[in-house]
Specification:
By secondary structure, this protein is mainly alpha-helical. It has a domain at 35-117. It is built from 5 helices and 3 strands; from the N terminus they run βββααααα. It has helices at residues 24-40, 47-69, 74-81, 85-94, 105-117; strands at residues 3-7, 10-13, 20-21. A hairpin with a 2-residue loop joins β1 and β2 (10-13). The chain is globular, with a radius of gyration of 14 Å. The two termini are 24 Å apart. Residues 1-6 and 10-18 have low confidence and may be disordered.
Length: 119
């Protein structure tokens, strides 16, 4: 049986076909949870956990936008974007999010953090 992500760190049984069913709202709520984690971790004391939490927050916020505003499907998020923040950023720019096309240094560093941390 699949499981549905509800945000807030909660996973409940659900009728998913890919193991986990996601929505734009659940992606955004989970991004907010990771952001709360970022607020609790000091980048000077625990740089790696701080970077990973911040990268996950950015990744999920971008994916939430793509799903909600650009109509990107869960399958596309999983199979074409994956954990590639740069690709998600570019698609958000094309979808009209109002980001500058070139990722700022902080976002590029987070993109590298997640691409080397999560396969």
């Amino acid at each position: 049986m699949g499981r549905e992500v509800t945000g807030g760190g909660n996973v409940v049984p659900g009728p998913a076909t890919m193991g986990v069913s996601i929505s734009a709202a659940s992606l955004f709520r989970t991004a907010q949870d990771f952001c709360a984690g970022v607020d609790m971790v000091s980048p000077t004391i625990a740089a790696a956990p701080f970077g990973l939490l911040a990268a996950q927050c950015l990744e999920l916020a971008l994916k939430s936008y793509l799903m909600k505003k650009a109509g990107v499907t869960e399958q596309t998020l999983r199979n074409k974007i994956g954990h590639n923040i740069a690709k998600a950023w570019s698609q958000c720019v094309r979808a009209g999010l109002g980001l500058k096309p070139d990722m700022p240094t902080w976002a590029a560093r987070l993109a590298v953090t997640i691409s080397t941390s999560i396969p």
